[in-house]
């Protein structure tokens, strides 16, 4: 696999938004946002409560249609495509934990994700033989997220942080070049935050990542580039050292009651 195919490498834009705007009955939640996510980088979208991060993320992942603006991925206009179509192009939004089957084992969960990707039949509960074909590949994704010792544990038995790791493994099974993570640290205890941070950094070595994240020390630790939203607009962009000393960014966070 070339670096280009993995979505890594020094040059090029993976995802680009131009003039992205979303209005809800006249209320402008996202206003004329233009941003570029460079291939092979970890890019964070941050901002105080109500800044428009979730709306922006839903627009970029095609869960919402923009009122105005254009989105391109790998040079292709994806503005009107559905999430499943962009997933086929290699840009995948991480599933919610609820998408993990609690009564199935870690291995079974990843196997099913693989089977779905390969467009195999949906009656997976009947064709055990069919599924075992994916075992080796599933094991490699389980190893990538550090869950090998839990291979045969039911998902329900895993800690919250390990469930998130499993959820990421099922996303990796779709072989994404770009991953979009919605608040990957939400609800995590400190030890899980460290585990998932390490995991995201490792995954980001060979893929492009865009994440919305509230935990600023995680953002500082992981991100190559950060876009700060406030009141639906881009307030600042840069690395953590740059944005953290930007007076407008500090004001926006203090004004919104953050630390
Ligand atoms: N479906 C909707 N209908 C009307 N207004 C909405 C809708 N979705 C979001 N908004 C409004 O858009 C603004 C931005 O919301 P959004 O959830 O994108 O912000 P956020 O930065 O993700 O906030 P938080 O950090 O609190 O999750 C808010 O004022 C919100 O009330």
Query: Low-confidence segments, ≥5 residues, pLDDT <50?
Result: 1-10
How many angstroms does the end-to-end distance come to? 44 Å
CATH architecture of the largest domain: 3-Layer(aba) Sandwich
* Main sheet overview: 6 strands, mixed
Query: Could you tell me which ligands this complex binds, including any ions or cofactors?
Result: adenosine-5'-triphosphate
Shape descriptor reads globular
Q: Provide the CATH top-level class of the largest domain.
A: Alpha Beta
How many structural domains in the coordinates? 2
Structural class: alpha/beta
Enzyme class: hydrolase
EC number: 3.6.3.25
GO cellular component, one term: plasma membrane
GO molecular function: ATP binding; ATP hydrolysis activity
What does this 3D model show about the protein?
The protein is an alpha/beta fold and 259 residues long. It has 2 domains: 1-90 and 178-198 and 207-259, 3-Layer(aba) Sandwich (Rossmann fold); 95-175, no CATH class. Helix content is 36%, strand content 24%. The chain has 11 helices and 10 strands. A 6-stranded mixed beta sheet has the order 6-7-8-3-9-10, with helices on both faces. A 4-stranded antiparallel beta sheet has the order 2-1-4-5, covered by helices on one side. Helix 7 (160-172) packs parallel to helix 8. The longest helix is centred in the C-terminal third of the chain and has 15 residues, at 190-204. The radius of gyration is 19 Å and the shape is globular. Bound molecules: adenosine-5'-triphosphate (ATP). This is Sulfate/thiosulfate import ATP-binding protein CysA. It comes from Palleronia marisminoris.
């Amino acid at each position: 696999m070339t670096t280009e195919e993995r979505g890594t490498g020094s040059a090029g834009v993976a995802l680009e938004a131009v003039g992205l705007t979303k209005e809800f009955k006249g209320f402008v939640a996202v206003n004329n946002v233009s941003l570029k996510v460079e291939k092979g980088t970890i890019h964070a979208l941050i901002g105080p409560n109500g800044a428009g991060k979730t709306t922006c993320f839903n627009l970029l992942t095609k869960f919402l249609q923009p009122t105005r603006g254009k989105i391109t991925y790998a040079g292709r206009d994806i503005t009107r495509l559905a999430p499943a179509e962009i997933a086929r192009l290699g840009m995948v939004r991480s599933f919610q934990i609820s998408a993990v089957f609690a009564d199935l084992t870690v291995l079974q969960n990843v196997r099913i994700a693989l089977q779905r990707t390969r467009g195999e039949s949906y009656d997976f509960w009947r064709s055990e033989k069919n599924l075992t074909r994916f075992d080796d590949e599933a094991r490699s994704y389980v190893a990538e997220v550090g869950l090998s010792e839990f291979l045969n544990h039911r998902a329900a038995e895993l800690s919250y942080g390990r469930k998130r790791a499993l959820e990421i493994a099922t996303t990796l099974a779709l072989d994404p070049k770009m991953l979009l993570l919605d608040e990957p640290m939400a609800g995590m205890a400190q030890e899980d935050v460290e585990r998932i941070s390490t995991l995201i950094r490792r995954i980001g070595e060979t893929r492009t990542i865009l994440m919305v994240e509230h935990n600023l020390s995680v953002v500082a630790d992981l991100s190559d580039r950060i876009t700060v939203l406030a009141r639906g607009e881009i307030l600042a962009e840069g690395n953590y050292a740059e944005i953290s000393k930007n007076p407008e960014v500090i004001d926006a966070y203090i004004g919104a009651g953050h630390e």
